[in-house]
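Good morning,

Both structures are done.
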Amino acid sequence: MLNELLKRPILPVIVIDDANDAEPLAEALLKGGMDVIEVTCRTAAAPEALARIKKSFPEMLLGAGTVVTPDQAQMCIDIGVSFGLAPGLNPETVEFFQENNTLFVPGVMTPSEIEAGLAMGCKLLKFFPAGAAGGVDMLKNLAAPYSPLGVRFCPTGGLNLSNMNEYLSLPVVACIGGSWLATKQQIADKQWDAITRQAKAALEKAALAKA
């Protein structure tokens, strides 16, 4: 699953308030060329939304984000998500996902957290909140001592179409996470065509960075 995730340069970070929006949202992203999604566990609708996408779009890499409690972690395993992510690094959560043979991407913001993640076998780490933590310059300097060890990062938080390639151009960046691809307002207003266009535009721009 790690290898599959690394093939996708952009991870849409989605907050769903109404589970009925899950299927049309996933379809809109697929039409835009994105077959991966991170549904954050920030809302009461998240478990049902994840289950609906899992059932209706088995071809999609389904991620659960903001997994910060044992109940959320168990819910993810019960649904059968492809991977999980968190804003921080909780060793118990990492171990739980590993015991259930499911990829987990913990969040880091300091050298100590990177080393803790590496000690647990996590080679893909979420740099969060990227923008507030110093952006590209911070990540470049933070990652330098660890890049020879094969660690890769997924910066999330404060990214958009304008600055995404600044991150993707860094060798240590495997992919980026972006909430701009489908905002809460766009989802509430059922702007599926706009979300499809945004997904296409982001992938086209990402291709330029990796080229």
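Second structure follows.
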Amino acid sequence: MPKKSASKPRRYPAPSTALSSSAVMEVKAGVFKDTCLQLLDDVRDRNLRIVVTKYGEPVAKLVAADVAMPSAFGFMSGTVIAEEDIVTPDFDAWGDLV
């Protein structure tokens, strides 16, 4: 049985930064399949955008997820409906107990 030689790490094309603020990388579908997990890490860590191509035609775009946390201030704005005065005591509702 022939010995397998140590496989070299796959290298994918360097990103192009000519037209945008974040780097754009074009990757063939087969290369994407082989290096998917590494590419996902690169998208997250290096703010890359990846265009996956099949036979030279773009078929998918991979971008980092927008994970900004919502602000604690004003997130419930418009959810409370005020109907009456809540400060003045309502003696009629308590009846003879007061």
